[in-house]
UniProtKB/TrEMBL annotation:
Residues 15-163 form the Spore coat protein U/FanG domain. It comes from the Bacteria. It comes from Hydrogenophaga borbori. The keyword Signal applies. Residues 1-25 form the signal peptide. InterPro entries: Spore_coat_component (IPR053167), Spore_coat_U/FanG (IPR007893). Pfam families: SCPU (PF05229). This is SCPU domain-containing protein. Keywords: Signal.
């Protein structure tokens, strides 16, 4: 019996598995809840803190029998920023605020430029029939309105773009 064709077929299958020929394209999505500070008393209002939940969901790329996705999350400066300073707006009124990646509100969360560094993570999932299962990871955006801002009454808002890069 000639075993060379069988051995060759087995080697081709093993090579395909180890080289990731059966690889799947990686994909990620991100969603977030709204961040709302509530009422602010002006002039001389107290500092106000708030937070919002961010959920990253990825289907990792299959490579060498592993399912792993690394990503970064960036936050734009918003629609009403003055340089790198984010601002809520109501007509001509501006209310400064910051977005942070830590609960102590010491690490600004930005776009990797003047508004601050990005944040990121890694999602590792299981493999089922040579297909990576989707996985998710939670993050929190921490917001702060500094105290003692003097602004006219109004309904203040801003729009910040959250981008996932993978």
């Amino acid at each position: 019996m000639n075993t060379k064709p069988l051995l060759r077929a087995l080697l081709l299958l093993l090579t395909a598995l180890l080289c990731g020929t059966a690889a799947r394209a990686q994909s990620c999505s991100v969603s977030a809840t709204a961040l709302a500070f509530g009422n602010y008393t002006s002039p001389g209002g107290a500092r106000a803190d708030s937070s919002a939940a961010v959920l990253v969901t990825c289907t990792p790329q299959y490579l060498l029998l592993a399912c792993k996705s690394s990503y970064t999350l960036s936050l734009s400066v918003g629609d009403h920023a003055s340089g790198a300073q984010r601002q809520l707006a109501a007509g001509a009124g501006r209310l400064a605020y910051g977005l942070f990646s830590d609960s102590l509100r010491q690490q600004p969360w930005g776009d990797g430029g003047a508004s601050g560094p990005t944040t990121g993570g890694t999602i590792t999932t299981s493999l089922l029939n040579l297909v990576c299962l989707p996985g998710s990871k939670s993050h929190t955006v921490y917001g702060r309105l500094p105290a003692n801002q003097s602004v006219p009454a109004g309904s203040y808002s801003d729009s910040v773009v959250l981008t996932v890069t993978y």
